[in-house]
């Protein structure tokens, strides 16, 4: 089976690989197994939290939903981004402060990925903030299969009809 089509989703906890950067997890994205991946991590003061994904060269359409739990001021200070996109903050969304720890959710939608990419969360939080998310991946054209062009389908139909007509004519000539 083709290696690109038989990808096996893996998730592994990785250790910090640079000072100030904390790699929380890595996953190989495969739409054959549903294309849905959950990930969690903790953004500590002075660190950048990263989640690494790889589509192994296959172009996929990716949506990511994020949640943060901690102090409202710390949550509002978090910036998250993917390569080639404008950074976003949880301050753009409603931060729930009514019960328990404060929480917020965010969204990265319609991101086209075709290889390794990293979701990064940064900023100067004063207290640790728990981060949880889910990545959803699909083929960009999964729901839009190309239609057979009319000229090609008309030629096929006419060729088939001519073949049946020829067989019928041959059969009549033999019978006579």
Describe the biggest sheet? 6 strands, mixed
SSE sequence, one letter per element? EEEEEHEEEEEH
**Radius of gyration (Å):** 26 Å
CATH class identity of the largest domain: Mainly Beta
The assigned structural class equals alpha+beta
CATH topology of the largest domain: Jelly Rolls
Question: What's the overall average pLDDT, rounded?
Answer: 75
Tell me which CATH architecture of the largest domain applies here: Sandwich
Counted by DSSP, the helix tally is: 2
Unreliable runs: 1-20
Quick one: how many beta strands? Answer: 10
Helix content: 10-25%
Overall tally of structural domains: 2
- The main sheet orders its strands as 1-2-4-9-6-7
- DSSP strand (E) fraction? 35-45%
Distance separating the two termini: 55 Å
Shape: rod-shaped
InterPro entries: VPLPA-CTERM
Organism: Thioclava kandeliae
Protein name: VPLPA-CTERM sorting domain-containing protein
Signal peptide: 1-26
